[in-house]
Structures
1.
Amino acid sequence: MKIGKIEFDDFPLLLAPMEDVSDPPFRALCKENGADIVYTEFISSEGLIRDAAQSVQKLDIYQKERPVGIQIFGSNLESMLKSIEIVEKTKPDLIDINYGCPVKKVVCKGAGAGILKDIPLMVKLTKEMVKKTKLPVTVKTRLGWDEKSIKIVEVAERLQDVGIAAISIHGRTRSQMYKGCADWTLISEVKNNPRMKIPIFGNGDVDSPEAALDMKNKFGLDGAMIGRASIGNPWIFNQIKHYFKFGEKLEEPKIIDKIDLVQRHFEMSVKWKGPKLAIYETRKHYGRYFRGIENIKKFKLKLISSNSVEEVITSLQDLRKNCSELQLAQI
C-alpha cells in the first residue's frame, strides 16, 4: 500500500491527530509501540500565517517519528494555501486536511466538520491545496454534518478526483460528536465503491485488537486510525499487530513498565514544552495510564497534585517502590 511514495505493510495503523494529546512526546511513544503513521495535533491555518506561537510550535517534528503528517484546518482558501508554504518548510511526509473536528469554536468558523455543510467549498479547497504542494495530501473527515446529510460515498469520490492520496473517515456525523457507535458500514460503502482507488482508513471505536480485525476482515478497510483508545495506552498498536499475527492477545504491560513509560513521557514533555506546561498537560494522561489498578488512587492524586518537576519524579519513585504490591493486587 502507498500514500504518495510512502510504502506500508498490510493494514497500517495510524495515530489520530488529537488536540493537546498527539504532541511530539506522545507521538514518539506511539511510534515506538507500533504506529505506522503519526499525525500532529491539528493546526490552525490562520494561526500559522499570523505566526501564533502555539500554532508554530505544533509544527515541530522529529526524524524518529517518520512517516509523520502535519494536519491543518481552516476555511479560507488564501490562508490555507499560505499555510502550506509554512508547513512545507518543516518537511513532513504528508499534509492532512481536517474536515472532521466537531468542536464548536472550529465549526462556527466553517472549518473542521463545519465545512461538511458546504461540500463544493470542501472540494475546491482540497483541489487547490493538492495543486499547491508536491507532498501527498490526505483528508480526515466524518460521515456528514448530520444523519440527513450523509453523502460520504460521493464526497470521498470527489476528493479522490481532485487528487488526495488517502482518506480517513470517522464513522459518526458532526451532530453525534463522540456519542453512540461509529458506523463502519458507511465507511465500507466508500471502500466498496469501484471508482475508489486510494486507501480508505476507518476511525472511531477502534479500541481493541478484535475491533481492528473486524475493520480489516468484516468491513474490508485498508487500515485503522486510532485516537482516544491510544491515550494512556500507546501499546495498543503493537497489541493489534500481535493479535493479527498470532491470534492471541499480548499481556497487559506490568505496572513497573507503565511507570517507566510515564516518566519518559513526562521528561520528554518537559524538554519539549518546558516544566510548567509539561506538569499541567501530562496530568490528563495519568488516569488513563493507571486505570483499572486497585489501590492506585492515593499515588495518582499525589502525581496530579505535584507542582514541580522534582515532585513529579518523586511521586513516580514512590509509586515505583510500591508497584510490586500493586501488581499483586491485579493478579
2.
Amino acid sequence: MKIANIDLGERPVLLAPMEDVTDPAFRLMCKRFGADMVYTEFVSADALIRSVSKTEQKLNISDEERPVAIQIYGRDTATMVEAAKIVEQARPDILDLNFGCPVKRVAGKGAGAGMLQNIPLMLEITRSVVDAVKIPVTVKTRLGWDADHKIIVSLAEQLQDCGISALTIHGRTRAQMYTGEADWTLIGEVKKNPRMHIPIIGNGDVTTPQRARECFEQYGVDAIMIGRASFGRPWIFKEVKHYLETGEELPALTPQWCMDVLRQEVEDSVNLLDERRGILHVRRHLAASPVFKGLPNFRDTRIAMLRAETKDELYRTFNDIRQRFFPG
C-alpha cells in the first residue's frame, strides 16, 4: 500500500495517534516491534500557532521512527492552515487531520469529531490544508456523529475530492465514544465504493492477530490501525505481523520477556520526561497490560505497582511479581 509516494508494503499495521500515549519513546518501541507507520499524539493547532512550548515539543520526531505522521486538530480554517505550515517544517512524512477525537474538551468545542456536525467547514479546512502544504495530507474520522447520522460513505468521497492521500475510519460514531463494538461494515462499504481510489485504513477493536487478518480479508481495507490494544502490549505488532505473514501464531512470549519490555517502557518514559512524570505516564500501560491479567490474589500487588512513585519502588514490585508468579 502506498500513501502518495510512501510505500508501506503489503497489509501494513499502523500505530494510532493517542494523546498522552504515542510519545517518541513509545512510537520507537512499537516501530521496533513491527509497526509500519506511527503517529504522534494529536497537536492543537491553536496552541501550536501560539508557540506553546509543550505543544511544540510534540513535533519532535526522529529518522528512526519514519515513516511518521504528525496529527493536528482545530476548529477554524486559518488556524489549521497556519499550523499545517508549521508542522511541515518539522518534516514529517505525512500530515494527518483529526476529525475523530470524541472527548468533550475537543469535540464539544467543534474540533475533532465535532467537525462531523459541520461538514462544510470540515471540507473547507481539508481543502485549504491540502493546498497549503507539499507533504501528503490524510484524515482520520468516525462513521458519523451518532447512530442516526452515519455519513461516512458519502463523506469519504467528499474528503477524497479535497485531495487527501488516505483516509482512516474509526468504526464508531462520536456518540459511542469508545463503548460498544466497532462497526466495520461501513468501513468495508467505503472501501468497496468504486469511486474511492485512495487507501482506506480501518481502526477500532483490532486486539488480536486473528482479528487483524479478518479485517483485511472481510472488509478489504488497505491497512489497519491499532490503538488501545497496544497499551502495555507494544509487542502486539510483532504478533500481528507474524500472523499476517505466516498464518500462524507467534510462539508464546514468556511473561519474563514481556516484563522486560514493560521495564524498558518505564526506562524510556523516565528518560524522556523525568522519574515522577515518567512513572505517572507509564501507569496506564501497566494497568492495561495482559501480563498481569488473571493472576491470583494480585489486587494488593497491583495497587502497589500503580502507586509506585520511584523506579526503585516500582522495580521492587516487579521483582516480587517475578518471584511469586513467573519464577525461572
3.
Amino acid sequence: MTSCFFSAPSRVSASLLLAAALTMLTGCLSRDETGLAGSKTRTDLQLCKAQLDAIKQVAPEQFGPLQKSFAGLMRNAAQYKQLRTGVTNGTQETVDALYLYRVNLLCADINQTLLLGLSKKGNAE
C-alpha cells in the first residue's frame, strides 16, 4: 500500500486526514465533521479492510494475528479520538504521526500478506 496518509503538505491537512482515518478506524463510515469521509483516505482504509478480509480465504493461518492487530488499532484509535482535543497541539502532532505510521505499516503488512498468499495459490499444482 502506498503512503496515502502523509502526502498532505501541511500539518493542518495531516490532522484532517488523521481525523478521517480515525473515523474510519472506529467503524464510522458516515460523513464526519472534517468532511473527508469520501476522501482517498477513507477509500484506502476500506481497501485495507477488504484486503484483510480476503486474507481469510488465501492465508487463513495469518488472518487471526492480522485481524487482532487491526482490531487493537481500531480500539486505540477510538480512544485517542475521544482524547485528542484535550491535549496540546504538539502532542496531537506527535500522536497523529504515530497513528499515521501504524496505519500505513499495518496496511502494508496486510497488502504483502495478501500478495504472498495469492502468489502461493497461483503456484500451487
